[in-house]
Design brief:
By secondary structure, this protein is an alpha/beta fold. It contains 22 helices and seven strands. The chain has three domains: 99 residues, no CATH class; 139 residues, Rossmann fold (3-Layer(aba) Sandwich), CATH 3.40.50; 113 residues, 3-Layer(aba) Sandwich (Rossmann fold), CATH 3.40.50.
Length: 442
Protein backbone atom coordinates (compact mmCIF):
# COMPACT_ATOMS: atom_id res chain seq x y z
CA UNK A 1 0.00 0.00 0.00
CA UNK A 2 1.25 3.48 -0.89
CA UNK A 3 2.18 5.71 1.99
CA UNK A 4 -0.10 8.63 2.75
CA UNK A 5 2.11 11.69 2.44
CA UNK A 6 5.84 12.02 2.82
CA UNK A 7 8.18 13.13 5.58
CA UNK A 8 11.22 13.55 3.36
CA UNK A 9 12.31 16.93 2.01
CA UNK A 10 10.92 17.53 -1.49
CA UNK A 11 13.30 17.00 -4.36
CA UNK A 12 12.96 17.80 -8.05
CA UNK A 13 13.64 15.88 -11.23
CA UNK A 14 14.97 17.61 -14.36
CA UNK A 15 12.25 18.83 -16.73
CA UNK A 16 13.34 16.45 -19.50
CA UNK A 17 12.38 18.64 -22.46
CA UNK A 18 15.05 17.01 -24.62
CA UNK A 19 13.45 13.55 -24.44
CA UNK A 20 10.94 12.30 -27.07
CA UNK A 21 8.38 11.34 -24.39
CA UNK A 22 8.17 14.93 -23.19
CA UNK A 23 6.60 16.03 -26.49
CA UNK A 24 4.32 13.00 -26.93
CA UNK A 25 0.80 14.41 -26.47
CA UNK A 26 -0.72 10.99 -25.80
CA UNK A 27 1.73 10.36 -22.98
CA UNK A 28 1.12 13.87 -21.70
CA UNK A 29 -2.61 13.19 -21.37
CA UNK A 30 -1.89 9.89 -19.60
CA UNK A 31 0.22 11.79 -17.08
CA UNK A 32 -2.35 14.57 -16.73
CA UNK A 33 -5.04 12.02 -15.93
CA UNK A 34 -2.79 10.31 -13.37
CA UNK A 35 -1.89 13.61 -11.68
CA UNK A 36 -5.44 14.95 -11.79
CA UNK A 37 -6.74 11.77 -10.18
CA UNK A 38 -4.31 12.15 -7.27
CA UNK A 39 -5.17 15.84 -6.90
CA UNK A 40 -8.90 15.07 -6.97
CA UNK A 41 -8.46 12.62 -4.12
CA UNK A 42 -6.53 15.15 -2.05
CA UNK A 43 -7.78 18.69 -2.78
CA UNK A 44 -5.33 20.38 -0.41
CA UNK A 45 -4.41 22.98 -3.04
CA UNK A 46 -7.90 24.29 -3.75
CA UNK A 47 -7.15 27.75 -2.36
CA UNK A 48 -3.92 28.39 -4.23
CA UNK A 49 -4.95 29.38 -7.75
CA UNK A 50 -7.57 28.89 -10.44
CA UNK A 51 -6.27 25.55 -11.71
CA UNK A 52 -7.44 23.42 -8.82
CA UNK A 53 -10.98 24.83 -8.53
CA UNK A 54 -11.25 24.43 -12.32
CA UNK A 55 -10.18 20.78 -12.08
CA UNK A 56 -12.44 19.94 -9.14
CA UNK A 57 -15.43 21.63 -10.76
CA UNK A 58 -14.86 19.59 -13.92
CA UNK A 59 -14.75 16.40 -11.86
CA UNK A 60 -17.77 17.26 -9.73
CA UNK A 61 -19.85 18.18 -12.77
CA UNK A 62 -18.94 15.03 -14.74
CA UNK A 63 -21.19 11.99 -15.04
CA UNK A 64 -18.88 9.76 -13.00
CA UNK A 65 -17.74 12.44 -10.53
CA UNK A 66 -14.25 11.07 -11.14
CA UNK A 67 -11.43 12.22 -13.43
CA UNK A 68 -12.35 9.56 -16.00
CA UNK A 69 -15.59 11.46 -16.58
CA UNK A 70 -13.82 14.66 -17.62
CA UNK A 71 -13.38 15.25 -21.36
CA UNK A 72 -9.72 15.40 -22.34
CA UNK A 73 -10.25 18.66 -24.22
CA UNK A 74 -11.27 20.25 -20.91
CA UNK A 75 -7.86 19.45 -19.40
CA UNK A 76 -6.61 22.61 -21.10
CA UNK A 77 -8.82 24.73 -18.83
CA UNK A 78 -6.75 23.53 -15.89
CA UNK A 79 -3.47 24.11 -17.75
CA UNK A 80 -4.39 27.65 -18.79
CA UNK A 81 -5.18 28.66 -15.21
CA UNK A 82 -1.76 27.56 -13.92
CA UNK A 83 0.78 30.37 -13.68
CA UNK A 84 3.64 28.23 -12.36
CA UNK A 85 3.92 29.84 -8.92
CA UNK A 86 5.25 26.48 -7.63
CA UNK A 87 3.49 26.83 -4.29
CA UNK A 88 1.51 23.61 -4.68
CA UNK A 89 4.75 21.68 -5.09
CA UNK A 90 6.57 23.24 -2.17
CA UNK A 91 3.92 24.10 0.41
CA UNK A 92 0.93 21.80 -0.03
CA UNK A 93 1.52 18.60 -1.97
CA UNK A 94 2.39 15.52 0.15
CA UNK A 95 3.11 13.40 -2.92
CA UNK A 96 6.09 15.17 -4.47
CA UNK A 97 9.27 13.15 -4.99
CA UNK A 98 10.78 11.26 -3.26
CA UNK A 99 7.22 9.99 -2.60
CA UNK A 100 6.55 7.03 -4.89
CA UNK A 101 3.67 8.83 -6.63
CA UNK A 102 6.24 11.30 -7.94
CA UNK A 103 3.79 14.15 -8.43
CA UNK A 104 5.07 17.43 -9.88
CA UNK A 105 1.99 19.46 -10.82
CA UNK A 106 3.86 22.57 -12.03
CA UNK A 107 6.14 20.58 -14.31
CA UNK A 108 3.32 18.64 -15.94
CA UNK A 109 1.56 21.98 -16.47
CA UNK A 110 4.73 23.39 -18.03
CA UNK A 111 5.01 20.35 -20.27
CA UNK A 112 1.41 20.85 -21.40
CA UNK A 113 2.03 24.56 -22.07
CA UNK A 114 5.14 23.68 -24.09
CA UNK A 115 3.24 21.17 -26.25
CA UNK A 116 0.42 23.67 -26.72
CA UNK A 117 2.88 26.35 -27.79
CA UNK A 118 4.69 23.97 -30.15
CA UNK A 119 1.35 23.21 -31.82
CA UNK A 120 0.87 26.94 -32.44
CA UNK A 121 -2.10 27.11 -30.09
CA UNK A 122 -1.12 30.46 -28.61
CA UNK A 123 -2.57 33.95 -28.86
CA UNK A 124 -0.70 36.83 -30.48
CA UNK A 125 -1.38 38.80 -27.32
CA UNK A 126 0.49 36.27 -25.22
CA UNK A 127 3.50 36.33 -27.53
CA UNK A 128 3.48 40.12 -27.36
CA UNK A 129 3.19 40.66 -23.61
CA UNK A 130 5.88 38.07 -22.86
CA UNK A 131 8.34 39.77 -25.22
CA UNK A 132 9.54 41.99 -22.41
CA UNK A 133 12.85 43.04 -24.00
CA UNK A 134 11.18 44.15 -27.23
CA UNK A 135 8.41 46.01 -25.41
CA UNK A 136 10.85 47.62 -22.99
CA UNK A 137 13.28 48.83 -25.65
CA UNK A 138 10.45 50.37 -27.66
CA UNK A 139 8.48 51.84 -24.78
CA UNK A 140 11.54 53.36 -23.11
CA UNK A 141 12.31 55.58 -26.11
CA UNK A 142 11.77 59.20 -24.99
CA UNK A 143 8.42 60.68 -26.20
CA UNK A 144 7.21 57.15 -26.96
CA UNK A 145 7.38 56.45 -23.21
CA UNK A 146 4.97 59.28 -22.49
CA UNK A 147 2.62 58.09 -25.23
CA UNK A 148 2.63 54.47 -24.06
CA UNK A 149 2.02 55.45 -20.43
CA UNK A 150 -0.78 57.81 -21.47
CA UNK A 151 -2.43 55.12 -23.59
CA UNK A 152 -2.16 52.58 -20.77
CA UNK A 153 -3.96 54.96 -18.43
CA UNK A 154 -6.65 56.16 -20.85
CA UNK A 155 -10.13 54.69 -20.40
CA UNK A 156 -10.96 54.70 -24.12
CA UNK A 157 -7.71 53.08 -25.29
CA UNK A 158 -7.97 50.50 -22.52
CA UNK A 159 -11.43 49.51 -23.71
CA UNK A 160 -10.02 49.10 -27.22
CA UNK A 161 -7.11 47.02 -25.91
CA UNK A 162 -9.59 44.82 -24.07
CA UNK A 163 -11.68 44.29 -27.18
CA UNK A 164 -8.88 43.94 -29.73
CA UNK A 165 -6.02 42.37 -27.76
CA UNK A 166 -7.70 40.75 -24.77
CA UNK A 167 -5.87 42.92 -22.22
CA UNK A 168 -8.34 43.62 -19.44
CA UNK A 169 -9.37 47.26 -19.25
CA UNK A 170 -9.08 47.38 -15.46
CA UNK A 171 -5.73 45.66 -15.08
CA UNK A 172 -3.02 47.95 -13.74
CA UNK A 173 -0.37 47.96 -16.46
CA UNK A 174 3.24 48.76 -15.52
CA UNK A 175 4.55 52.17 -16.47
CA UNK A 176 7.72 52.58 -18.52
CA UNK A 177 10.63 54.87 -17.74
CA UNK A 178 12.76 56.39 -20.50
CA UNK A 179 15.58 56.92 -18.00
CA UNK A 180 16.34 53.21 -17.69
CA UNK A 181 18.59 51.70 -15.06
CA UNK A 182 21.28 51.12 -17.70
CA UNK A 183 21.20 54.83 -18.62
CA UNK A 184 21.21 55.92 -14.97
CA UNK A 185 24.15 53.68 -14.16
CA UNK A 186 26.32 55.37 -16.77
CA UNK A 187 26.30 58.48 -14.60
CA UNK A 188 26.97 56.63 -11.36
CA UNK A 189 30.24 57.42 -9.67
CA UNK A 190 31.79 54.03 -9.08
CA UNK A 191 32.55 53.38 -5.43
CA UNK A 192 35.66 51.24 -5.10
CA UNK A 193 34.81 49.70 -1.77
CA UNK A 194 37.38 47.39 -0.27
CA UNK A 195 34.80 44.62 -0.02
CA UNK A 196 35.62 41.86 2.41
CA UNK A 197 34.71 38.31 1.50
CA UNK A 198 32.98 35.92 3.89
CA UNK A 199 32.63 32.15 3.80
CA UNK A 200 29.50 32.49 1.64
CA UNK A 201 29.91 35.81 -0.20
CA UNK A 202 32.69 37.46 -2.17
CA UNK A 203 31.62 41.04 -1.41
CA UNK A 204 31.60 41.79 -5.13
CA UNK A 205 28.05 41.94 -6.49
CA UNK A 206 26.95 41.94 -10.11
CA UNK A 207 23.38 43.23 -10.47
CA UNK A 208 21.29 41.55 -13.17
CA UNK A 209 18.82 44.40 -13.76
CA UNK A 210 15.97 42.32 -15.26
CA UNK A 211 13.56 43.74 -17.85
CA UNK A 212 11.27 45.14 -15.18
CA UNK A 213 14.10 46.59 -13.15
CA UNK A 214 15.59 48.27 -16.20
CA UNK A 215 12.57 49.54 -18.12
CA UNK A 216 9.74 49.86 -15.59
CA UNK A 217 11.05 50.68 -12.10
CA UNK A 218 14.74 51.53 -12.38
CA UNK A 219 14.52 53.27 -9.01
CA UNK A 220 14.48 49.84 -7.34
CA UNK A 221 17.84 49.00 -8.91
CA UNK A 222 19.25 52.38 -7.93
CA UNK A 223 18.13 51.86 -4.32
CA UNK A 224 19.64 48.36 -4.27
CA UNK A 225 22.98 49.70 -5.48
CA UNK A 226 22.95 52.46 -2.85
CA UNK A 227 22.11 50.01 -0.06
CA UNK A 228 24.78 47.54 -1.13
CA UNK A 229 27.42 50.23 -1.51
CA UNK A 230 26.47 51.55 1.94
CA UNK A 231 27.42 48.09 3.17
CA UNK A 232 30.90 48.38 1.66
CA UNK A 233 30.07 46.08 -1.22
CA UNK A 234 31.49 46.55 -4.67
CA UNK A 235 28.64 46.68 -7.20
CA UNK A 236 28.49 46.62 -10.97
CA UNK A 237 25.49 46.49 -13.31
CA UNK A 238 25.66 43.53 -15.68
CA UNK A 239 25.67 44.76 -19.28
CA UNK A 240 24.13 43.42 -22.50
CA UNK A 241 21.84 40.88 -20.87
CA UNK A 242 18.46 39.67 -22.11
CA UNK A 243 15.25 38.77 -20.31
CA UNK A 244 15.81 35.97 -17.81
CA UNK A 245 13.27 33.88 -19.75
CA UNK A 246 10.57 33.49 -17.10
CA UNK A 247 7.76 35.11 -19.16
CA UNK A 248 8.51 32.78 -22.08
CA UNK A 249 8.76 29.80 -19.72
CA UNK A 250 5.25 30.51 -18.44
CA UNK A 251 4.09 30.72 -22.06
CA UNK A 252 5.65 27.34 -22.86
CA UNK A 253 8.10 28.79 -25.40
CA UNK A 254 11.08 26.68 -24.37
CA UNK A 255 13.09 27.59 -27.48
CA UNK A 256 12.97 31.26 -26.45
CA UNK A 257 14.01 30.26 -22.93
CA UNK A 258 16.99 28.40 -24.39
CA UNK A 259 18.05 31.39 -26.49
CA UNK A 260 17.87 33.70 -23.46
CA UNK A 261 19.83 31.17 -21.41
CA UNK A 262 22.56 30.95 -24.04
CA UNK A 263 22.95 34.74 -24.10
CA UNK A 264 22.82 35.37 -20.35
CA UNK A 265 24.72 32.41 -18.96
CA UNK A 266 27.77 33.17 -21.07
CA UNK A 267 27.97 36.65 -19.52
CA UNK A 268 27.09 35.63 -15.97
CA UNK A 269 29.39 32.60 -15.86
CA UNK A 270 32.35 34.80 -16.81
CA UNK A 271 31.46 37.18 -13.98
CA UNK A 272 31.40 34.25 -11.55
CA UNK A 273 34.80 33.17 -12.80
CA UNK A 274 36.02 36.71 -12.12
CA UNK A 275 34.86 36.48 -8.50
CA UNK A 276 31.45 38.16 -8.63
CA UNK A 277 28.27 37.09 -6.87
CA UNK A 278 24.99 37.85 -8.69
CA UNK A 279 21.72 39.32 -7.46
CA UNK A 280 18.51 40.41 -9.19
CA UNK A 281 15.79 42.74 -7.83
CA UNK A 282 12.94 40.48 -9.00
CA UNK A 283 12.26 37.11 -7.27
CA UNK A 284 11.05 35.45 -10.49
CA UNK A 285 14.32 36.26 -12.23
CA UNK A 286 16.36 35.01 -9.29
CA UNK A 287 14.31 31.80 -9.31
CA UNK A 288 14.88 31.38 -13.03
CA UNK A 289 18.62 31.08 -12.50
CA UNK A 290 18.39 29.27 -9.17
CA UNK A 291 15.85 26.62 -10.14
CA UNK A 292 14.26 26.63 -13.57
CA UNK A 293 17.34 26.76 -15.79
CA UNK A 294 19.23 24.15 -13.72
CA UNK A 295 16.19 21.84 -14.01
CA UNK A 296 16.06 22.38 -17.77
CA UNK A 297 19.80 22.14 -18.35
CA UNK A 298 21.17 19.99 -15.50
CA UNK A 299 24.23 18.90 -17.46
CA UNK A 300 25.51 22.39 -18.34
CA UNK A 301 28.36 23.33 -16.02
CA UNK A 302 27.98 27.09 -16.55
CA UNK A 303 24.27 26.97 -15.67
CA UNK A 304 25.11 25.24 -12.39
CA UNK A 305 27.97 27.66 -11.77
CA UNK A 306 25.60 30.63 -12.08
CA UNK A 307 23.03 28.86 -9.90
CA UNK A 308 25.54 28.61 -7.06
CA UNK A 309 26.44 32.31 -7.33
CA UNK A 310 22.86 33.65 -7.61
CA UNK A 311 21.28 35.30 -4.56
CA UNK A 312 18.11 37.07 -3.55
CA UNK A 313 19.20 40.58 -2.40
CA UNK A 314 17.97 40.09 1.17
CA UNK A 315 19.40 36.59 1.33
CA UNK A 316 22.72 38.21 0.46
CA UNK A 317 22.37 40.92 3.09
CA UNK A 318 21.54 38.35 5.78
CA UNK A 319 24.55 36.25 4.83
CA UNK A 320 26.64 39.38 5.32
CA UNK A 321 24.87 40.02 8.62
CA UNK A 322 25.69 36.56 9.95
CA UNK A 323 29.32 37.26 9.17
CA UNK A 324 29.14 40.58 11.05
CA UNK A 325 29.42 42.59 7.84
CA UNK A 326 26.01 44.29 7.70
CA UNK A 327 25.74 48.00 8.47
CA UNK A 328 23.03 48.27 11.14
CA UNK A 329 23.33 52.01 11.68
CA UNK A 330 19.74 52.73 10.70
CA UNK A 331 18.62 56.35 11.10
CA UNK A 332 14.87 56.16 10.47
CA UNK A 333 12.32 53.73 11.96
CA UNK A 334 9.73 52.44 9.51
CA UNK A 335 6.82 51.70 11.84
CA UNK A 336 4.43 48.91 10.94
CA UNK A 337 5.02 47.19 7.57
CA UNK A 338 2.52 44.89 5.86
CA UNK A 339 4.81 42.53 3.97
CA UNK A 340 3.56 40.31 1.14
CA UNK A 341 5.91 37.34 0.69
CA UNK A 342 6.27 36.76 -3.06
CA UNK A 343 5.61 33.19 -4.26
CA UNK A 344 8.78 32.98 -6.34
CA UNK A 345 10.77 34.05 -3.31
CA UNK A 346 9.07 31.54 -1.01
CA UNK A 347 9.92 28.62 -3.30
CA UNK A 348 13.62 29.52 -3.21
CA UNK A 349 13.63 27.88 0.25
CA UNK A 350 15.63 30.66 1.87
CA UNK A 351 13.11 31.72 4.51
CA UNK A 352 11.88 35.27 5.09
CA UNK A 353 15.20 37.05 4.70
CA UNK A 354 13.48 40.31 3.80
CA UNK A 355 11.60 40.29 7.10
CA UNK A 356 14.81 39.44 8.97
CA UNK A 357 16.60 42.48 7.53
CA UNK A 358 13.66 44.83 8.06
CA UNK A 359 13.30 43.70 11.66
CA UNK A 360 16.87 44.84 12.38
CA UNK A 361 15.57 48.40 12.03
CA UNK A 362 14.58 49.89 15.42
CA UNK A 363 10.88 50.63 15.99
CA UNK A 364 9.89 48.57 12.97
CA UNK A 365 7.32 45.78 12.96
CA UNK A 366 6.87 43.44 10.00
CA UNK A 367 3.57 41.63 9.41
CA UNK A 368 4.10 38.91 6.76
CA UNK A 369 1.37 37.72 4.40
CA UNK A 370 2.09 34.28 2.94
CA UNK A 371 -0.58 34.22 0.22
CA UNK A 372 -0.23 34.42 -3.54
CA UNK A 373 -1.16 37.81 -4.99
CA UNK A 374 -2.40 36.20 -8.23
CA UNK A 375 -0.45 38.58 -10.46
CA UNK A 376 1.97 36.20 -12.16
CA UNK A 377 3.63 38.71 -14.49
CA UNK A 378 1.04 38.51 -17.27
CA UNK A 379 -1.88 36.49 -15.87
CA UNK A 380 -3.80 39.45 -14.44
CA UNK A 381 -3.51 41.43 -17.68
CA UNK A 382 -5.50 38.86 -19.66
CA UNK A 383 -9.19 39.60 -20.07
CA UNK A 384 -10.22 36.02 -19.38
CA UNK A 385 -8.18 35.71 -16.17
CA UNK A 386 -8.19 39.18 -14.59
CA UNK A 387 -11.23 38.59 -12.39
CA UNK A 388 -9.70 35.34 -11.11
CA UNK A 389 -6.41 37.14 -10.43
CA UNK A 390 -8.22 39.77 -8.39
CA UNK A 391 -10.13 37.07 -6.51
CA UNK A 392 -6.86 35.34 -5.59
CA UNK A 393 -5.48 38.67 -4.41
CA UNK A 394 -8.49 39.55 -2.25
CA UNK A 395 -7.28 37.76 0.94
CA UNK A 396 -3.95 39.61 0.63
CA UNK A 397 -5.74 42.93 0.16
CA UNK A 398 -7.92 42.22 3.19
CA UNK A 399 -4.87 41.44 5.32
CA UNK A 400 -3.23 44.71 4.28
CA UNK A 401 -6.40 46.63 5.15
CA UNK A 402 -6.73 44.92 8.52
CA UNK A 403 -3.08 45.43 9.46
CA UNK A 404 -3.28 49.17 9.99
CA UNK A 405 0.25 49.30 8.61
CA UNK A 406 2.12 52.48 7.77
CA UNK A 407 3.26 50.98 4.47
CA UNK A 408 2.81 47.79 2.45
CA UNK A 409 5.49 46.09 0.44
CA UNK A 410 6.43 43.02 -1.60
CA UNK A 411 9.74 41.79 -3.02
CA UNK A 412 7.81 41.35 -6.27
CA UNK A 413 7.09 44.91 -7.41
CA UNK A 414 4.37 43.67 -9.77
CA UNK A 415 2.63 41.87 -6.92
CA UNK A 416 2.84 45.10 -4.94
CA UNK A 417 1.03 46.97 -7.69
CA UNK A 418 -1.54 44.19 -7.97
CA UNK A 419 -2.29 44.71 -4.29
CA UNK A 420 -2.48 48.44 -5.05
CA UNK A 421 -5.17 47.71 -7.65
CA UNK A 422 -7.09 45.65 -5.11
CA UNK A 423 -6.88 48.34 -2.43
CA UNK A 424 -7.97 51.05 -4.88
CA UNK A 425 -7.45 53.72 -2.22
CA UNK A 426 -4.64 55.67 -3.86
CA UNK A 427 -1.91 54.18 -1.67
CA UNK A 428 1.27 52.91 -3.33
CA UNK A 429 3.55 50.01 -2.39
CA UNK A 430 7.18 50.68 -1.52
CA UNK A 431 9.74 48.04 -2.44
CA UNK A 432 11.61 46.53 0.56
CA UNK A 433 15.01 47.64 -0.74
CA UNK A 434 13.65 51.19 -1.01
CA UNK A 435 12.48 50.92 2.60
CA UNK A 436 16.00 49.90 3.63
CA UNK A 437 17.42 52.92 1.84
CA UNK A 438 14.91 55.13 3.70
CA UNK A 439 15.94 53.55 6.99
CA UNK A 440 19.61 54.25 6.27
CA UNK A 441 18.69 57.80 5.21
CA UNK A 442 20.93 57.63 2.15
Amino acid sequence: MAREGSLEAPTRHPLGQNTPDFWDEGKLFDELERVFDICHGCRRCVSLCGSFPALFDLVDESDTMEVDGVAKKDYWKVVDDCFLCDLCYLTKCPYVPPHEWNLDFPHVMLRAKAIKFKKGDVKTRDKLITSTDTLGKFASIPVITQTVNAFNNNTLTRKLMDKMLGIHEKSLLPEYDSNTLVKRDRNRKQVNNNAEATETTTGKVALFATCYGNYNEPQIGEDLIKVFEHNNLQVQLVQKTQCCGMPKLELGDLDAVTRAKDANIKILAQLVDDGWDIVTPVPSCTLMFKQELPLMFPDEADVLKVQQAMFDPFEYLMLRSKAGKLNTDFKNPLGKISYHVACHQRVQRIGMKTREVLELIPETEVLPIERCSGHDGTYTFKSEFHDTAMKICKPVVNRVKQSGADVYTSDCAMAGHHIEAGLADGSKPVHPISLIRQAYNI
